[in-house]
């Protein structure tokens, strides 16, 4: 049954952390809001990515909403880094508590969004055949939403179970007694491998590029730690806002260049042992110049390489697991539970898919370019996403004068502050390209963006105008600033999905703002308090 056209103040696309908070905030500000969600449940990333071992890599006390003291006091995390089912339960609890579901339309995949300049409104259609109208459109579509298609032939020939980690069956997959292939060793593969290995008869991990990974130090939540956080939540959240990634992670205040090699080694070791917030991205804050000074970065990279050599018993496997051609932080640093140890199991084999790439699937397994064949019962694809821009470009978005988003971004994903697009009036992005997004605490960054967007819409309404459009110059300047800021670090020297390097033909630009979350917040606050002077109101 097709819905008739309906008019809203705001349409929000996506019902993950971002879309849900946007709904709550905008509705509380008095606007009529409709959330359109492609999935048949809420939760976004945490709805889709149900693979074994999935969990967050920022401590749950921090990877959670801060806007409601009641919610943060009421909810109890059971582990330092909550597993995916618990994060999804939390999201559902928040949705129920705030009575969000009544304004969320599930199974509604947005196909197109077109700005109707004459009537100053967005016309949004869904693949299911609905048409909705709204004065404003907020894209809460996530940074890692669209899975990559593998460059592997004959996917349909395989007669066993073929699964994508980001489209995991709700009923789970039984690996017991099965011969399993896991393709991909990014954050996802590194989380999944140890869990699959525990039950599979044999696991082959196909690795093209090794990653740097640190032990998460995940553990059951210590009641004292939980209590301490709850008693100090407001202050801690405030303190986190003053950091480079919206997270309290014991960031070092010194430059690594000023420290002796022994002092550096001691600091790295302490963080490796501590896990928690000192691990993962937190490790990259050991010294202030970890991503700027080559010698400090070399030392940190070498520290992890030595840890791999000390952990993995077979020297050939250890060597293959060791990243050699790029420095730590150049690609997403991973956190794990027993990843390197997994390769000491007799039922786990690492395969070098760089030297001998996977060519095709066969009826009974897969075949590499060399002609080597492997029999499998189950093949798991953990091969990543078309990050940052994929979900936005998947929709047919048309702004003023017929301007297509695909055209606007053909030479890189230009945005103003990762929040707005020139030529696409009344449209806002949450954690869009050009914002700190994936290199910050995503939930906190979401809250900042939603608060900013709500205030901006309020400004338009208060001014008696009905369209707001950011200037081309402001957008171009911000795009240049994002790329110049990244160029001042070592990070863009590596091929990574931050640059779009994993998607053939994607323009290569650094898509994350690296100036630091605290500085970024100052910039967006100033853009608002300065009266949105980079925007034209009509
Ligand atoms: O994806 P990835 P991901 N044959 O792109 C390989 C977030 N995240 O889903 O590097 C063989 O990192 C590919 O090889 P290469 C986090 O931000 C967070 O793991 O292209 N291999 C790579 O090894 C993360 O960065 C959490 O040479 C093939 C892998 O697949 C982001 O999501 C958990 C191949 C893809 O790695 C993406 O992580 C999970 C082929 N044909 C994810 N094609 C946490 O919060 C691709 N690969 C902890």
Short characterization:
By secondary structure, the protein is an alpha/beta fold. The chain has helices at 17-28, 45-48, 69-74, 84-97, 187-199, 223-231, 233-241, 261-274, 294-311, 315-321, 339-342, 390-394, 405-408, 442-463, 472-487, 517-529, and strands spanning 6-13, 33-36, 104-105, 110-116, 121-126, 131-139, 161-164, 179-183, 202-207, 213-215, 334-336, 348-352, 358-361, 365-368, 373-375, 378-381, 396-398, 427-429, 468-470, 535-537. The chain has 2 domains: 3-42 and 100-146 and 387-537, FAD/NAD(P)-binding domain (3-Layer(bba) Sandwich); 155-381, no CATH class.
Structural class: alpha/beta
Largest sheet: 8 strands, mixed
The number of domains: 2
Mean pLDDT: 97
Enter the CATH topology name of the largest domain. Answer: FAD/NAD(P)-binding domain
Which architecture of the largest domain per CATH?
A: 3-Layer(bba) Sandwich
Helix content class: 25-40%
Name the shape in a single word. Answer: globular
Report the β-strand fraction as a percent range: 15-25%
Radius of gyration: 23 Å
Low-confidence stretches: none
**For the record, what is the CATH homologous superfamily label of the largest domain?**
FAD/NAD(P)-binding domain
Tell me the layout of helices and strands.
Elements: E1 6-13, H1 17-28, E2 33-36, H2 45-48, H3 69-74, H4 84-97, E3 104-105, E4 110-116, E5 121-126, E6 131-139, E7 161-164, E8 179-183, H5 187-199, E9 202-207, E10 213-215, H6 223-231, H7 233-241, H8 261-274, H9 294-311, H10 315-321, E11 334-336, H11 339-342, E12 348-352, E13 358-361, E14 365-368, E15 373-375, E16 378-381, H12 390-394, E17 396-398, H13 405-408, E18 427-429, H14 442-463, E19 468-470, H15 472-487, H16 517-529, E20 535-537
Helix pairs in contact: 1-14, 8-9, 14-16
3-acetylpyridine adenine dinucleotide binds next to helix 5.
């Amino acid at each position: 049954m097709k819905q008739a056209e309906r008019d809203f103040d705001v349409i929000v696309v996506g019902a993950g952390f971002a879309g849900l908070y946007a709904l709550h905030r905008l509705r509380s500000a008095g606007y009529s809001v409709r959330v359109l969600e492609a999935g048949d449940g809420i939760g976004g990333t945490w709805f889709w990515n149900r693979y074994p071992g999935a969990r967050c890599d920022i401590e749950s006390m921090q990877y959670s909403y801060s806007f409601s003291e009641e919610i943060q006091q009421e909810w109890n995390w059971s582990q330092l880094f909550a597993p995916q089912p618990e994060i999804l339960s939390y999201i559902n609890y928040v949705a129920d508590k705030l009575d969000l579901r009544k304004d969320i339309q599930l199974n509604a995949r947005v196909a197109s969004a077109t700005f109707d300049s004459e009537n100053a409104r967005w016309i949004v259609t869904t693949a299911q055949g609905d048409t909705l109208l709204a004065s404003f459109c907020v894209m809460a579509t996530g940074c890692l939403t669209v899975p990559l298609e593998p460059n592997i032939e004959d996917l349909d020939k395989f007669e066993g179970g073929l699964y994508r980690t980001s489209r995991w069956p709700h009923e789970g997959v039984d690996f017991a007694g099965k011969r399993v292939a896991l393709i991909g060793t990014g954050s996802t593969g590194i989380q999944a491998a140890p869990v699959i290995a525990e039950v599979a008869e044999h696991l082959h991990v196909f690795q093209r590029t090794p990653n740097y990974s640190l032990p998460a130090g995940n553990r059951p939540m210590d009641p004292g730690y939980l209590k301490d956080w709850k008693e100090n939540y407001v202050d801690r959240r405030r303190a986190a806002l003053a950091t480079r990634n919206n997270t309290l992670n014991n960031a070092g205040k010194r430059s690594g260049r000023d420290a002796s090699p022994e002092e550096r080694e001691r600091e790295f070791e302490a963080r490796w042992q501590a896990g928690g917030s000192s691990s993962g991205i937190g490790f990259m804050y050991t010294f202030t110049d970890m991503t700027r000074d080559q010698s400090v970065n070399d030392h940190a990279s070498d520290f992890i390489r030595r840890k791999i050599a000390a952990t993995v018993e077979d020297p050939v496997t250890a060597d293959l697991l060791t990243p050699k051609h790029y420095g730590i932080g150049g690609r997403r640093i991973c956190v794990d539970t027993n990843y390197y140890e997994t390769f000491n199991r007799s039922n786990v084999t690492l395969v070098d898919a760089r030297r001998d790439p996977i060519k095709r699937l066969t009826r009974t397994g897969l075949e590499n370019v060399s002609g080597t064949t492997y029999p499998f019962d189950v093949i798991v694809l953990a091969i990543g996403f078309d990050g940052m821009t994929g979900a936005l470009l998947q929709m047919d978005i048309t702004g003023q004068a017929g301007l297509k988003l695909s055209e606007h971004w053909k030479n890189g994903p230009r945005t103003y502050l990762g929040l707005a697009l020139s030529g696409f009036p009344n449209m806002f992005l949450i954690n869009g390209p050009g914002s700190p997004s994936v290199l910050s605490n995503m939930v906190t960054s979401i809250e900042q963006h939603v608060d900013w967007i709500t205030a901006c819409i309020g400004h338009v309404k208060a001014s008696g105008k009905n369209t707001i459009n950011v200037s081309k110059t402001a957008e171009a300047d911000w795009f240049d600033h994002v790329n110049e800021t990244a160029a001042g670090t070592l990070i863009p020297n590596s091929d990574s999905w931050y640059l779009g390097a994993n998607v053939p033909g994607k323009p290569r630009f650094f898509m994350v703002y690296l100036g630091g979350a605290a500085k970024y917040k100052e910039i967006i606050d100033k853009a608002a308090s300065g009266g949105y002077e980079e925007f034209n109101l009509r």
